[in-house]
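Minutes, project check-in
Item: structure for the 177-residue chain
Input as provided by the requester:
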Amino acid sequence: NQFGTDRFGASSAIVDGYLYVAGGCISTTTDCDSVTDSVQYTQIDANGNLSNAWSTGGNLPAGRAWGQLEAAGGTLYYIGGQTNTATDERPEIYWATPSAGAVSWAAVGGSYDLPDGRTQHSAVSWNNRIYVTGGIAETGGAVSSVVYVGPDLSAGGAIASAWSTTSSFNIARSGHS
């Protein structure tokens, strides 16, 4: 039940008894000159064991690395990240509602994406809201202390209202978890 493809800068999340791994760098260099749009998943049994095989679960709409995969309201959200270059911080958010493990992704789009692109950020879901913390910002390319809070996603599905900001870190950071 080992993961089938070497990659770094990928992200993972669990929803409805499945473990998902999305995106990541597939190049052999440390500067990530090649990313993937691949999403793979495996089922988790009642004892926490992974099934014997990983399945391809529907590719992201674009290749990404260093973004964050989160689950809220039974839906997966892939947030931000970068394309093949370290100076291409992305604001896009993709979402998918899994069905027996398989996913079909869509873009959130427009004013419901992140207010500013992020890569190498952290994210966490609590009470069906997603919090995106720090990272490298699209505006200026500097390490950020900003914390974004997503809207209530208890119903899952597409994000239908804008993100807000909350108290920022006292020290900017990236690459944290």
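Outcome recorded: The two ends are 25 Å apart (CA to CA).
No further action items on this chain.
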